[in-house]
Each structure stands twice: as structure tokens, then as C-alpha cells.
Amino acid sequence: QTKTGIALLYDEVSENAYDIRLKLTKEVLTIQKQDVVCVSGSDHSANHRTVTLRRQPVGGLGLSIKGGAEHKVPVVISKIFKDQAAEQTGMLFIGDAIIQVNGINVESATHEEVVHLLRNAGDEVTITVQYLREAPSFLKLPLGSPGPSSDHSSGASSPLFDSGLHLNGNSTNTAPSSPSSPIANEPKYEKRWLDTLSVPLSMARISRYKTGTDKLRSNAFEVLALDGVSTGILQFYTAQESADWLRAVSTNISDLTLQNMKMANKCCSPSDQVIHMGWVNERLEGTDSSQLYKFKFLALKGSSFYIFSTPPVSTLDWVRAEKIYNLCEVLFKIHKLWLADDCWLQANWYLGIHQDFDLEDQRPYCFSVMAGHGKSHYFNVELGSELAMWEKSFQRAIFLEVQRTGSKTYMCSWQGDTLCFTVDFALGFTCFDSKTKNVLWRFKFSQLKGSSDDGKTKVKLLFQNLDTKQIETKELEFQDLTAVLHCIHSFIAAKVASVDPVFIDSQSIARKYMYSN
After folding, report:
1. Where in the sequence does UniProt note compositional bias of the Low complexity kind (predicted)?
2. Are 359 and 336 in contact (CB under 8 A)?
């Protein structure tokens, strides 16, 4: 998507916001600020301009001013009146900070002091100005041209006093003074939007939250590039504008991620393809940081689920993942969706799996990935569409891995005997003696009617005998029971998907609620 629009850049230190223009392309988000540039004439720097105004009997200097040292901002030109002295110079602009009046420095002057100087400066007033690129939004300066028309700033009143036409002063001349017009060889200036920062979107991430907290910024978000360069806090005037920009930027990031995946997959074997990857927030567990989140980059590739602190950008980077789990032995669960009516949906997708997470945090769009030995990771994404994509991608990656692997065998024991337990995509469940290889029992997936476990190492599997219709209980003990239970779930889900794909799609919580709302 390509998009341009007016927004605010919020400074968390000064708590001021500045007018900016955003320009979104397929690969870059650019921040533009207004500045005054010299477009013709002698090659003067536009940083400081010295202009002589001839006071007119009607209209005076033809400008209004705002601000002052008492507000911790310079005095700036807030209005320029059509066909009057200031406009006729062609060298003054709304947003110009007044540096000097008739050679007197006023950078630290109050509003009233500057008003007094201008009022009593005589018929010819020489002022030196510099365009204030970061004028605080509370000045409510109209953006003016160039660029799309916007009534965001000009429509609201400012809490600061706006001194205008009374800057006429007491002119001694009774005849109309000659107009303040540009001299032929004088440089010509224009106010333009200039690029000040470009953030590449490839592998970039978005955050709507204050760093490390659950505090959602109101109508605002931040975009951070792969190299750490940040747009700063981009603030929008309405929730709709914020949502539109969030979706547009997110879509472009996703498209670029897809391109990166395709490039990476050219170097990978068919069995080791990247299915999906992207940024998430991981909740840090622990009593002191139970509600803190940290950016993590997840990837589903080949037989594994990867967790990175930074994205892999080369083939060698894949070995430096913080965590790597076998896809057959993980369980994906959606925990929370934010519905259109602003209520929470607590969703336990897979039945019979104990939920260990406290869901009192304030973030929507949450999911967890549980692995062997009771290890769990709790994640959050920014958009419902991202949650739906992760749900679909985990299903696909796990089903592909089950079909590739075909079977998984685990060492187990019962009553002192060392046994092997195999989950096979075609045959179902088989238990055999690890030494003699003699098969002790075998059941199809459809014969498994239930299970129970002690939450540690022991499990009871309940199978229905096809001949007698009686339930047979098989008790086994595993070193990593969680991994085995997840593997059983993965194989059964993949089996169901191969027989009835529509049923699996109907179980998609994220997609169901995203589309229905």
C-alpha cells in the first residue's frame, strides 16, 4: 500500500507533539517535516532570513504572533494576512520563529515584550526569523500549503494569546506607505515538506504499547526498523486514522516478510521450508516482571519452531536461535481475542490441556506455545489478522511435519520393563518391547477414547477393543510426558485434517471471530 497523511510526532520527554507528514511506500515509511527552503535567487541559507517590513496604515505589519519564553517556546508567526505587508515580502511564513527585531535578540523574550517591540519599532521594522520545524502542537498553527488540506490544527483554538492586528503601532505617516515587496535579486523562499527520516519496513516491527508495559498508547504506535531506528511515537487525530495507518504499515511489513521467506526458501530443501515468521511480544514470566513484554521473532521452518531475539538474515543465523522446538511436540493455543463489542473472549481451543497462564493482563490477541518438560511461552500480536495467520501457520507447519515424519517413537516403561511407544500416521499407536521388538499391543487412532495423566510422568490411555467393544486401559511412564501428549495431539489433528480439512478450518477461533466481527 502507498499512503500519505498528516500526523503528530509525540516527544515523550517534553510531552509535546509536532505536526509531521507520513509517506508510506511498499518498502519505506518516511517522516516529513515542514521547512522553508530557498528556491531561487542568491544561494542564501534559509535557516535565518532577515526581512524589512513597512508598516501600513491599515493592517499594520500584516501578521499575528503566538508563544513566548513564558510558554517555553519562541515567539512564532501564527497568521499572515493576505495582500498585507508580511505576505508581500514573500519571505515570511506561518511557523517562523522571530529571532531579532531591529537588531534586538528576542529568543528569550516573553510574548508581551515582543509585542511591545513590534508595536513601537517605527514604520520600518527589520526582523530576523528562522522556521521552527518542531512547533509544539499546542500552538495550533495551521499547516497551510503545500500538502493535503487539513483542518486538524487550524480548527481548534490555542490556549496561547494570539496578538494580531494591534501591531499597527503609531505610524507618523499619513500617506499610504509603499508595499513590502520582494526585490528582483532577492532570494525566493517556499515552505515545503522535507524528508527527515526514512524507516525501512523489511523485518520492521510495530508497537502500540509503552515499552515493556501493558499501557496502550491512545491512537498511536511506533515503528522500529531492523537496525533499531525508530519513527518515534506516531500519534493520530482519530482512532480510525490510527487503525488505518496501523493496518497499512502492517500489511507492507507482512508483504516484505513474505518476500524474505521466498528468498530464504530458495536456499532450503523442500522439507526445510519457512512456513511463516514474524515479530511478536513475549510476556516475561516471574513475580517481578509478570506483566512485562519483550520483542521476539518467531519462525516456523521445516521440522522446528524457532524463537529469536533478532530476525535471521542469513543461512548461518538459524543456529543462533534462543529456543528451538520440534513441531510435533508443541501445542499452539489461542488465549484471548478482542471482539468488536470490547469484551474479552477467553478461548481454550484444545480440550483436556491444562491452562497454566494467568490471563489478567490487558493485551488482546494472545496465544501460547507449550513444549516438552512443561515449558511454555505466552505471546501477543498487534492485530487480529496476525493472530489468525499464526493459528493457520502453526496448523499447516505441524501437519506437514507429521506427514513428513510419518512416525515418532518414545522410550517408556511399565512395571520395570523398558518399552517403546510409537505414534504412526498410518498405523496409529504401537507398543513393543525395546529388546525383543515384540509388539505388545496396537490400536488405531479411532480406538483412542480418552486419557488421563498425573501431570508428571504417568499416563493412562483408554482404547476400545474393536471385537469386544470393551475399554482397555494401557498405563505407561515417560521421561517427558508433555512432549508425548503433544505429539499424540499433533498426529490425531493431522489425521483429521487429512480426512476432513473443513472440520479443522471450522475450529479456527481467530479466523472465526475475526470475520464474524
Report:
1. 143-160
2. yes
**Pick from 164, 180, 189: nearest CA to 45:** 189
Distances (CA, A) of 186 to 44, 83, 158, 181: 10, 19, 34, 10
Domain ranges for the chain: 1-38+195-267, 49-136, 269-397, 406-504
* Residue 486 CB neighbours (<10 A): 25
- 13-26 confidence digits (pLDDT tens): 778 888 999 999 99
pLDDT digits (tens, 9 = 90+) for 134-183: 877 767 776 654 333 333 443 333 445 566 544 555 444 434 444 444 45
Closest CA to 433 of 420, 449, 451, 442: 420
Cell of 171: 505610524
> ∠ CA(69), CA(74), CA(75), 5° rounding?
95
Q: Grid coordinates standing for 262?
A: 521466498
Residue length, the chain? 517
**What is the H or E stretch that residue 461 is in?**
strand 458-464
Name the residue among 12, 385, 517, 14 with its Cα closest to residue 220: 12
What does CATH list as the number for 1-38+195-267?
2.30.29.30
Same CATH fold assignment for domains 1-38+195-267 and 269-397: yes
C-alpha cell at 243: 487503525
**Cell numbers of 15, please?**
510531552
- Output the 3-class SS for 72-131: CEEEEEEEECCCCHHHHHCCCCCCEEEEEECCEECCCCCHHHHHHHHHCCCCEEEEEEEE
Q: Helix H segments across 324-416? A: 384-405
Give the fold, CATH level 3, of 406-504: PH-domain like (2.30.29)
**pLDDT, tens only, 336-353:** 654 433 333 333 333 333
Q: Which three cell numbers stand for residue 189?
A: 523562499
